[in-house]
Every structure is written in C-alpha cells, then in structure tokens.
Amino acid sequence: MLTFILRRLVLLIPTFFGITLISFVIINLAPGSPIEQKIQAIRFGAQGERGGGGGDRGTFGMNEEVIAAMKKQYGFDKPIHERYIIWLKNLARLDFGESFKYQEPVIDVIVSKFPVSLQFGIASLFLTYLICIPLGMAKATRAGSFFDAASGIVLYLAYAIPPLVLGVFLITFFAGGSYFSWFPTGLFRSDDYENMTAWGQIVDRAHHFVLPLICYLIGGFAELTVLMRNSLLDVINQDYVRTARAKGLSENKVLYKHAMRNALIPIAVNLGGFLQVFLAGSLIVETLFQLDGLGQLGYTSILARDYNVIMGLIFFNALTLMIGRLLSDITYVLIDPRIDFK
Questions:
Q1: Owning domain of residue 127
Q2: Residue 151: CA atoms inside 13 Å, Cβ hemisphere, count?
Q3: 5: in domain
Q4: pLDDT tens-digit map of 57-96
Q5: Structural domain total, the chain
Q6: Is residue 222 part of a domain?
Q7: What pTM was computed for the model?
C-alpha cells in the first residue's frame, strides 16, 4: 500500500506539468491578450473623450514604444516557454502574479471568492452522502416496489432538469415575490448577520443556502442515489449473500456487515471527485442567486483574459483532482482489503 501511494505521488508530478503546460499554452495562444484589451480600452476611452464623432483614429492611437513598455511590464515581451518557466518558479512561492482585472495578487483574489464555493461544497458533499446512501439502500431493499418506482421517477426528473431552469423556477415561485417570498436571494447572509446570536447566524445562513443548494445538489444527488441502489442490488443477489442468509443471520447483519461494504466500492471511486466542488463553483447558480464565488470568478477572468487568475484556478483544480483520485484509491483499499495495488 505504501509503495502504491509513493508511486502515485511520483506520477502526480508529470501529470501536473502536463496539465499546466497545455493549459498555459492554450490560454496564451488564444486571441485577445490582456495587453490587447488594455489597448482597446485606452483607445475607446480616448475616442469617448473626443465625443465619439469622426476624426482620425490615429490621433488617439498608441505608438509602438508604449505598447512595448506595457508588454514588458506584464511580462509579455518574453517567449511563451520562458514565461511558463517563470510561472513555475513563482509557483514554488505560491506566487501566481497579479490579476490584470482586479489589480491585486491572484492568491488574494481567489481567497476572497473561496468561502462561497467552500461552504456550498462542504454542504453539498455532506448532504449528498448523508441522504443518497440511505435512500439508495432503501430503494435496493425494496426493488420493484411502489416506493422504488415512484422515487425513481422523481430522481430521473430531477436529473433531467437543467440547473438554469430549476433556479429560475425556484426564484420565481419562492423568492421573487410573484408567488411566495419565503427565501432571500443575493449573498449568503443577512445585513445584520454580525448582530445575531450563534444560533441565529446558523439559521440565517441555512435560510440563504436552501435555494442555491438545491440547484447545486440536484444532478449529483440523483446520480449517486441510483449508483448506490444498483450497486447494492447487484451485491445482495450474489451467492455469498444468499449463503449468509442461509446460515440464519439477521437481515440487518447480512445487509450491513456483508453486502454494504462491497456495495460502497463504486461510491468510494467517485468520492475523490467531490473535492472539486470545493473549487469549481457553479457559474449558473452563482449568477442566478448573485453569489460571488469561484465559478463566476472563472467566467469573468476568461472574458477579461486574466491569464494569471485563470492559471491560478487551473492549478488548484488540478491539485484537488489529483489528490481526489489518490484518496479514492486509498478509500477503495480500506473498504475492500482484498484489493492489492502493486
């Protein structure tokens, strides 16, 4: 087991270099660099000052010396491979450079948006496994019953609903004032949050979380429940489970001691992927509910060609993805000791 972990950790290094190198090259070769956008902003600003009418475009153009100075200031005067090497050297100090859009260190920009995605990520992870595993077990033990069929229809409908449509529906009916005003939208706490008691703060935060959390959960919730149901159903029909029943063991002992452990193996494989929800965010959900998280940060950074912020987000997402895969394999072994990685 230790050898496997060490080997996987060594493999993470070339994987990381491959992800960041490909991403860096694609981002930097895409048209519309930050320098070009700044030049366009300056030109439009000069055009606006002239009243926007006629005139010679060259009168508010920029000469080559100014453009060269801007490229040198932001490091775009060097070849792309040199810029990547410089980025790697700075990465050793967790220095991702300065955001072109926010004019702040990239790490500070990401940290400022991180709490929103982190809170929804933790809540999604906790609620998904807390509800989906028992629900999947209940569906498996009642396979073919009315409960299994009815809950299956609800889950498939939930899986098919796009988050955008669901979010608009929830806001219109429960937060827009057209029908009910049960839940607030915007941010994730009230204005007088600091003056509340500890319990009041918990209730207030939960009140703001309800609608966006439903949109976060809806797709993965249905998928994980069906996966748990099918996995357990496959296990309880195997011979060793029938043998355990034939020995006179209680149904609970057969289910939880013999069947459950093997049924959790597919769930464990997917566990590492949930680490990404801490950073990925959701552009649709965050835009609909006015949440300033990492999903919206990534979208605005792409539009603004904020290369440093984009690379910072790619770094953290790649890191969580690789660590998640490693944790999935370790959990795999803990659940089923018969599995031996060599």
A1: 106-335
A2: 21
A3: no
A4: 444 456 677 777 777 777 777 888 888 998 889 888 888 8
A5: 1
A6: yes
A7: 0.77
